[in-house]
Write a structure and sequence with these properties.
This is Recombinase family protein. InterPro entries: DNA_bind_recomb_sf, DNA_bind_recombinase_dom, Resolv_N, Resolvase-like_N_sf, SSR_resolvase. It holds the Pfam family Recombinase. The protein has 316 residues and is an alpha/beta fold. The chain has 2 domains: 152 residues, Rossmann fold; 112 residues, Putative Large Serine Recombinase, Chain B, Domain 2 (Hect, E3 ligase catalytic domain fold, Alpha-Beta Complex), CATH 3.90.1750.20. It has 10 helices and 11 strands. Strands 4-3-5-6-7 form a 5-stranded mixed β-sheet, sandwiched between helices. α7 packs across α8. The chain is elongated, with a radius of gyration of 29 Å. The N terminus is likely disordered.
């Protein structure tokens, strides 16, 4: 599908325009947003528009435009970015334009390596909002300086987030709006036990000791339609998340803070330890026999294997 330039020119992702024009260089534009629907100067359309305008000013011909929407710039695992690199290696254009360097990469390590790769392919890097042109020694110096500032900003944001999270943890507050089953998050950020949910947690632990199987317990909960605390059906993993959660015995562990909080305790330690012993019995080297697979679960498993084999035969 072709795209219209600000001047009305149509082009495709795999343009056959010549690599060198009488006016100057052939350019590829790369635009990226880190979240869907970003507006103003960060929007994909605005980034492309400003890059294209710069090409018009310099007399460069745009042959390719690559857009990555709602993709992080912390690494290079981006679909259109990888296509850009592949085209650069094939000598499809002379320079890559970005609206701002952090659209290209948020990591100094990656940015320096990527710039070196482009330089090896004799492809330049140009930023619309920063004085970057890696075809010159001064431009390469500016490139590394701005890359360092970009990575520093990301690290500082991460550090501030960790500091904020640790400050919350010191007051035994919960870091998100989804506390474990058995609790509700209060206005001040701390947790409060919700007794009906807490009783359900106790039932889970007690019943597990009897059935000694997370898959069988999950199947039993689904059969009983015990979905009042879940948005979807119970799975062995979901059951395991409850059985492994030490918060139920008051062991609060968030952002490196590990403390006993009495008001968060739902279960006696003896029950938790007994469940843990049963749950890890096959890891301890003790002789124990696994619970047999239920008939319904066995039938579903057989049906799944049979279906997969039939599909394999059809594709062969």
């Amino acid at each position: 599908m072709s795209e219209q330039s600000p001047n009305g020119m149509a082009f495709g992702m795999q343009s056959t325009a010549p690599l060198q024009t009488a006016e100057g260089l052939t350019a590829a534009i790369y635009a990226r947003t880190s979240s869907p629907g970003q507006q103003h100067g960060y929007s994909l359309n605005e980034q492309v528009r400003q890059c294209w305008q710069r090409c018009d000013e310099l007399g460069w011909t745009v042959s390719h435009v690559y857009r990555d929407e709602a993709v992080s710039g912390k690494d290079t695992d981006r679909e259109m970015f990888q296509k850009l690199l592949s085209a650069a290696e094939q000598d499809c254009f002379d320079v890559v334009l970005v609206w701002k360097l952090d659209r290209f990469s948020r990591s100094l390590m990656h940015a320096v390596k990527l710039e070196q790769r482009l330089r090896d392919w004799e492809v330049g890097l140009h930023s619309v909002t920063e004085q970057i042109d890696t075809t010159t020694p001064t431009g390469r110096f500016n490139f590394r300086s701005i890359s360092s500032a970009s990575e520093l900003e990301r690290d500082l944001i991460k550090q501030r987030s960790q500091m904020g999270l640790r400050a919350l943890a010191l007051e035994h507050k919960w870091p998100n709006d989804n506390p474990p089953v058995g609790y509700t998050k209060q206005d001040d950020g701390t947790l409060e036990i919700v007794e009906p949910e807490a009783e359900f947690v106790r039932e889970i632990f007690t019943r597990y000791i009897e059935v000694q199987s997370m898959p069988n317990l999950a199947e039993e909960l689904n059969a009983q339609n015990r979905l009042e605390y879940r948005k979807s059906k119970w799975t062995p993993y979901a059951v395991g998340e409850i059985l492994k959660n030490q918060l139920y015995i008051g062991e609060y562990s968030v952002a490196g803070i590990h403390e006993y909080v009495e008001e968060y305790q739902i279960l006696p330690e003896s029950l938790f330890e007994k469940v843990t012993a049963v749950r890890t019995r096959f890891q301890s080297g003790k002789e124990s026999k696994r619970q047999p697979m239920s008939k319904d679960r066995k039938n579903r498993y057989i049906k799944k294997i049979t279906t997969q084999y039939s599909e394999y035969l059809e594709d062969s």
